[in-house]
């Protein structure tokens, strides 16, 4: 399976690997042949780039002698081929470099692979620094089983814990970065609104100044003098109209109230009706949620509570 290229296999991968391992021919398993072959050609180093499927067929012609000085395996997230690949690489290379491929989690996979290669006599070389290639990479060398010691599992378990913590920190950093970006957008939006508010305040100040000048202008004073008689007539006409309208208005008598009272008594639900409707509503097969949204501004709490209770009391 071909892993996607990441920071583990960038454009300087071949040169970086050549500086780490200065001698011999390379074998790369599980990477992109087109990109890597051109890189190794530019670095003037010999390298074969195989897929996982090619590994078994290529090694079937092996004479038992290691053909490569260094083999690099971009291991996948799955564990199906670990034993087969470990056996093949251990027969064809003196040094094996394990690097996480696309989707592989070093915190989980590295210890499994170290133990797998340990069964073929390869143990980690912790003095070989491969951070430039990938923080999760590890170099394995062929040593006698007794030379490996008992510290390998402990070191790898510690590395797994550190790598797991590193992954958690990386995810936290991504979340914090996303939150920070959102905060920047919010601040930019607030700054834009603040600029508009300042502009509105300047316009309001200008309008108030123009109003003040207009009140003090000679034209306004002359207009008030000329319109004074008309305003007196208008005021007098309004007063007369109001009095005539009040005389001609018929007060609401008991007849109108009694008609409304009759209608209300006829259509208003009784306590028994409300109880029956509530019981029927509880038995409905569909129980929809009805949300009432009302805007409020400086509303007294008592009025708001009365409104809420009124809605809740509906049948």
Folded structure, characterized:
This protein has helices at residues 13-20, 33-42, 52-59, 82-92, 106-118, 151-215, 218-248, 254-267, 271-282, 301-312, and strands spanning 26-29, 47-50, 68-75, 93-100, 122-124, 138-142. The protein is an alpha/beta fold. It has a six-stranded mixed β-sheet with strand order 2-1-3-4-6-5, with helices on both faces. Strand 3, helix 4 and strand 4 (93-100) form a beta-alpha-beta unit. The longest helix has 65 residues, at 151-215. It is elongated and about 120 Å long. The model is unreliable at 1-8 (pLDDT under 50).
What's the CATH H-level homologous superfamily of the domain at 7-149?
Vaccinia Virus protein VP39
Shape-level CATH architecture of the domain at 7-149: 3-Layer(aba) Sandwich
CATH topology of the domain at 7-149: Rossmann fold
- Helices and strands, in N-to-C order? HEHEHEHEHEEHHHHH
Summarize the biggest pleated sheet. 6 strands, mixed
Structural class: alpha/beta
The beta-strand count equals 6
Q: Work out the helix count.
A: 10
Shape from CA axes?
A: elongated
Straight-line distance between termini: 64 Å
């Amino acid at each position: 399976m071909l892993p996607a290229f990441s920071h583990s296999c960038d454009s300087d991968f071949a040169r970086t690997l050549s500086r780490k391992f200065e001698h011999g021919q390379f074998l790369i398993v599980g990477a992109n042949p087109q990109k890597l072959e051109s890189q190794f050609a530019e670095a003037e180093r010999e390298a074969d780039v195989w897929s996982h499927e090619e590994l078994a067929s290529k090694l079937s012609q092996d004479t038992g002698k290691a053909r490569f000085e260094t083999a690099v395996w971009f291991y996948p997230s799955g564990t199906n081929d670990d034993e087969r690949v470990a056996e093949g690489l251990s027969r064809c290379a003196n040094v094996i470099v394990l690097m996480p491929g696309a989707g592989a989690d070093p915190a989980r996979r590295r210890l499994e692979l170290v133990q797998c290669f340990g069964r073929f006599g390869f143990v980690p070389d912790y003095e070989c620094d491969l951070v430039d290639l990938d923080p999760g990479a590890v170099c394995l060398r062929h040593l006698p089983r007794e030379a490996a010691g008992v510290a390998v599992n402990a070191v790898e378990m510690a590395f797994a814990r550190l790598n797991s913590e590193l992954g958690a920190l990386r995810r936290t950093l991504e979340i914090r970065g996303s939150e920070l970006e959102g905060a920047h957008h919010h601040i930019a939006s607030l700054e834009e609104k603040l600029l508009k508010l300042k502009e509105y305040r300047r316009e309001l100040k200008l309008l108030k100044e123009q109003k003040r000048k207009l009140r003090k202008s000679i034209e306004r004073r002359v207009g008030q003098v000329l319109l004074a008689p008309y305003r007196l007539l208008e005021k007098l006409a309004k007063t007369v109209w109001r009095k005539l309208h009040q005389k001609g208005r018929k007060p609401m008598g008991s007849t109108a109230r009694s008609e409304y009272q009759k209608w209300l008594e006829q259509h208003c639900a009784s306590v028994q009706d409300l109880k029956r409707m509530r019981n029927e509503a509880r038995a409905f097969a569909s129980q929809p949620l009805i949300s009432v949204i009302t805007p409020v501004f400086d509303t007294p709490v008592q009025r708001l509570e009365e409104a809420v209770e009124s809605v809740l009391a509906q049948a």
